[in-house]
Design goal:
- This protein is mainly α and 127 residues long.
- It is built from six helices and no strands.
- α3 packs antiparallel against α4 and α4 crosses α5.
- The chain starts with a helix and ends with a helix.
Length: 127
């Protein structure tokens, strides 16, 4: 559980800030996505970094016992899978991003992300 709390302290504030940013500055985040989509090399580098960070996260924490452990483990696996998709099939990532923007899910994604960030911050710093 010590590793879970440590990772919650890292993920919590980061995800909370991004979630609030997505919710409050939706256009800015869409622009970032659109600009990244144009930079093929940056997409590859971000994908490779995400695979590496995700693999490290999974190696350090792949525990599925309690809710906090499950949430933290899912974040590591999500990072790994997102990186693999960006590296292996970037067009699939582009299509998924386009679908997300067109379906107006961005505010919901921001709210959900902020909620997870609040939970992990609470867990990491207040429990």
């Amino acid at each position: 559980m010590e590793t879970t709390l440590f990772l919650a302290q890292i993920w919590g504030p980061t995800i909370l800030a991004v979630g609030i940013g997505i919710f409050v500055s939706r256009g800015y985040y869409i622009k970032i996505y659109r600009d990244l989509e144009k930079e093929k090399f940056a997409t590859l580098v971000f994908g490779m970094m995400a695979v590496g960070a995700g693999a490290a996260h999974i190696g350090a924490h792949n525990t599925w016992g309690t809710l906090p452990e499950i949430v933290i483990s899912l974040l590591g696996w999500g990072l790994f899978v997102k990186g693999a998709i960006l590296t292996i099939a970037p067009k699939l990532a582009d299509k998924a991003g386009d679908w997300t923007v067109k379906s107006k899910l961005i505010p919901w994604a921001g709210g959900f992300t902020a909620l997870i960030g609040v939970y992990l911050s609470w867990l990491g710093y207040l429990v």
